[in-house]
Design a protein that fits this description.
heterodimer; A: mainly beta; seven-stranded mixed beta sheet; four-stranded antiparallel beta sheet; 0% helix; 47% strand; B: mainly beta; six-stranded mixed beta sheet; 11 strands
Chain lengths: 118, 116
Amino acid sequence: DTGVSQNPRHKITKRGQNVTFRCDPISEHNRLYWYRQTLGQGPEFLTYFQNEAQLEKSRLLSDRFSAERPKGSFSTLEIQRTEQGDSAMYLCASRALARRGQGNNEQFFGPGTRLTVL
Amino acid sequence: DQQVKQNSPSLSVQEGRISILNCDYTNSMFDYFLWYKKYPAEGPTFLISISSIKDKNEDGRFTVFLNKSAKHLSLHIVPSQPGDSAVYFCAASEIGLTGGGNKLTFGTGTQLKVEL
């Protein structure tokens, strides 16, 4: 399977604990994105990487959130001191870097990690 | 500030008929639009996209229409099949001159149900 993979698929934690999620993108894709989706909403952008460089972070990404992509391959998203409001589906997506003038901007999503904070 | 809006939370269509899902946007900097389909407990799956330089893009049973002046796009599925039942998300991004493209801004989704 050469798609985007995410682990774990489900995570239940108690408020105040730290959690870490992993995303493995499609191997030739150099852009990697994290989104969060809550019930009844569409995915909301959190942050993205081009290779190992984190190029943009949303205001949704509070100080308790940190993301890394140390070797430009897989990425991790860590949430420290989790709160009940962090309960959501965390989605990872990847895409190839489009060449100038090329319109392809399709991002390919993984299955997501569903976080429940008790 | 909802920059991409899908005002119909649900749509029910009979098998074989046309499904039309609508999407409006407010950000005039958006120049690339996409439709994703999502089943429960899965990530969104890319369906079809359109650049702002076009007004129509077709792929099999799926056609996306873009009306830039109205800041409106729609997805047509014909004929609709029971397997099309899912949540459909409209998304938009800014590509600009660099060709890079960044984050996607999504609507809230429309639940399509195709009935036998």
